[in-house]
Input
Amino acid sequence: MPWDECLLEQQRLAVTAAVGAARTAAYRKLWEGSGVVTADISIGNWQDLPLLSKDALIESAQTNPPFGDRLAVSGQEIAHIFVAPGPLYMPFTKADMEHVAGSFLKALQSCGLNSQDLVDQTTMYNWVIAATAIDRSLQMIGCAVVPGGIGQSEMHLDVIRNLNVNAIVAFPTFLEHLLELAAQDGQPLPLQKAVVMGELSHPDTKKKIHEEYGLEVREFYGVADVGAVAWECQAGDGMHLRDDLLVEFLTPEGVQVAAPSPDQPAELVVTDFHRQAMPIIRLRTGDMINELITDTCSCGNTSPRFRRIVGRAGEITKVKGMFVVPRQVKDVFQRLGIERRFRLVVSRENGGRDTLMLEISGEPVQDIQGLLAKVEAALRLRVSHRFVDELPEFGPLLVDHRLTEEPK
Output
């Protein structure tokens, strides 16, 4: 189907989804407060609908727990509830899960996986949705799955060698880490294919892995709330947008539609037509792109594509596949009665692994280990720390250096 026709169908389905979402108190209140009449929602006034953000989802869940008045089905229809940082509780019906897994299936197949592959699936299985959905999609493809999960690098190396695993699904930094460890051991891995996702990465990362280790590396981009959003094909010239999801591109301030360009990156905003348990209408992903390729791809897919996520809008980012939300650290400080300025700094060290540093202004805190333990529990990530003389009063709470660093 020509993309213009596909986009028109997406817009029609998005309007239908929005009308359905108005059954929930949260959406009804949000839209009525902005002067939007549910019965009048149409393609023509679609951009009058207020945008939804992760912060707003978290705040509403805290105000009206556990689902922030966004549950659109009965409790008996819920099949899974995932837990994201915030905390944010994400309910899915059986049909929701099948559709999310279906999106990952399309992504992983397009990235080169098939029923002949033995796959080490290295994303986290507990609490968050990614591994559960990816595991299901790999089985739908017919792959044999090794549920490795995160961490335990030496165990991954042993299993990959002992089972002759030929494919892996991983965050780019973890894949590089495993390959470097194997090279140091002098025992190359039998891996031939890699599918990567979930992190801000340097544009040369996939090329570097291919040239140094011989793996065919393809990438997909996903959002926990809706599943896979875009994925590479065999041409390897960008990630194709999914055709059953409305994706909009807005200025970083989220105020108007804007075509992404090198001079003006745009934020991806998604609307899901299929999500039953918790409708997702005009959700700001926070992810920025700076190009949209519309030339015909050699694979025959007519959907536009982009090459990579170039950054994050606002003060939320991902580290090792997990959202880092500064307000969670602020909550920890408040609970402990610590009145200090702080800043989270994300970097990529020489080994290619992401690091998270907590900078705290002033003299050392008496029980720093207790503070760090609570911060790490909130973020579910390892955090280092340092004390600094001062931090800007109105400066950002999160600084991400990864995209300014060359790949090692």
Summary: The first strand starts at residue 78 and ends at 84. The chain has two domains: 1-314, 322-404. The domain at 322-404 is CATH 3.30.300.30 (GMP Synthetase; Chain A, domain 3). The chain has a mean pLDDT of 90.
